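Sequence of Bifunctional NAD(P)H-hydrate repair enzyme (Lentibacillus cibarius).
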Amino acid sequence: MYIVTAEEMYDMDHGAMNKVGIDGKLLMENAGRSIAASLKERVSKTYRILVLAGGGNNGGDGFVIARTLLDNDFDVTVVQVVPDEKIIGDALYHKQLFVCCGGNVTVMQTVDEVGPMISRVDIVIDAIAGIGMKGRLREPLASVVDVVNKKASYVLSVDIPSGLPANEGISDFYAVQANETLITGFPKQSAFLEHTAPYYGNWQVVSFGLPSVITSDGAHRYLWTEEQFRKTIPERGRYSHKGSHGRGLAVGGSAEMPGSITMTVHAALRTGAGLVTAATAKSAIPAVASQCMEATYLALGETNGRMNNELPIPFDNYDAIVMGMGMGRHHEARSHIRKALEEASCPLIVDADGLYHLKSLLASVKKRKSPVVLTPHPGEMAMLLDKSVPELLQKPFAYAKMAAEKYGVYIVLKGPFTIITTPDGQQTVTTTGNEGLAKGGSGDVLSGIILAMVLQDQPIMEALSNACFIHGKAADMLIADTHSVYDLLASDLLHGISKVYRTFV
Ligand SMILES: NC(=O)C1=CN([C@@H]2O[C@H](COP(=O)(O)OP(=O)(O)OC[C@H]3O[C@@H](n4cnc5c(N)ncnc54)[C@H](OP(=O)(O)O)[C@@H]3O)[C@@H](O)[C@H]2O)[C@@H](O)CC1
Ligand SMILES: [K+]
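Predicted 3D structure, token representation.
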């Protein structure tokens, strides 16, 4: 499923109308009917419903919803929040159908009238404005939204909460706070951004009958769903052996921080890597080995318990390498990263302290022929790009794409919505996971899962998307079952991985 900007959605709408010949009125009918069908399934006919209809096609959807609900004996009325002359085209057509079917439309004269009407109903359907919004909501609509936010007991937004931008990069807006949003067609970028996503409430996508022959030229962004995970997760052959599932290397940890590399290695093994070696400071090995019997170890020279560069790492013995977790920010650690960039011919995944070192090695990253995967959280990504975190979070899709293309790397930008970007700018988003993951060690586990998935026989983009899916889903399944967002530990995720496999594969 695509993730789109407003312009990309309009391009597809126009494609359906101009290339296929579907009338816009029909698309509007489909959109409104899909939303009404969803409501019919779960809302009692004793509920009173008020549709707030604005002047564009979003308002048009509102008239279709109202007509369909009325036809099904729901108690529904429409308040038109713009003057009559603003209702034109397809929206006017559907308004007339609603009226001819016995529907009641009240045209708002002053905003003061709206509050009491909202207070009398159980559900407000917000069809004030959709993806055609330009700039900050003007008066009197801003005041209408204010009343909705203060007085409505339950708000269902049509396509997008009114006032909210569909695209990333816009911070000046005033919008409806929805309880739920039924998105028509494809989810918009703003459903995946920290500063706009909460306005949607719970959301689902409903169809407006866009034919599948209509594809997007511009939207190289996709939602990575459970269905895709099931479809793409590599099978484990009956006759496979440990070598068939890859030989991975994890470089990191120190005597003071043995936990990070332990979780990475353990997670890689649990996810299905054939063989995993942990390269860490010599004195950290007993602590790591006591927690993870299945791994092998490569003892690195050390100074005060932290790896130094006395002993080289044979980077070419592996099928994929992950580096950085707990390795420290001292210069000896950096030389291992530099060497890996120069010498390893397999995919190289860089996380945590490794990303800090990478900042000064970006020229070598660019030159490297074999794949590089960076797994930053927003703070690390902002550091790499010399941006502030708020700046980055305004436009994570654009910044990730720009950096991935510029340096020729895969980027896993971690967050509640993890954005995975390929060197040619394709993006997937995974939405699994919960606030229980906001703890030290979660990233180390993800690194291990990524290592294991990159070792399997599948394109790196799929491997990364599946790894992020597993990581988040493990947390979700643990929360649903034996844990809570408070007590979940990164090490618990190791058991969660088993649950994900047993459920989905
Ligand atoms: N085939 C299709 O087309 C399909 C379309 N679909 C639906 O159409 C929606 C897009 O419809 P759209 O393009 O008509 O725009 P829409 O969001 O309703 O807003 C336009 C209105 O807002 C107003 N307005 C703008 N800026 C403003 C501001 N700052 N402050 C205040 N007002 C402002 C503007 O007024 P104006 O500025 O022109 O006076 C105009 O009245 C989409 O989200 C989906 O729901 C689906 O049903 C599927 C099929
Ligand atoms: K809306």
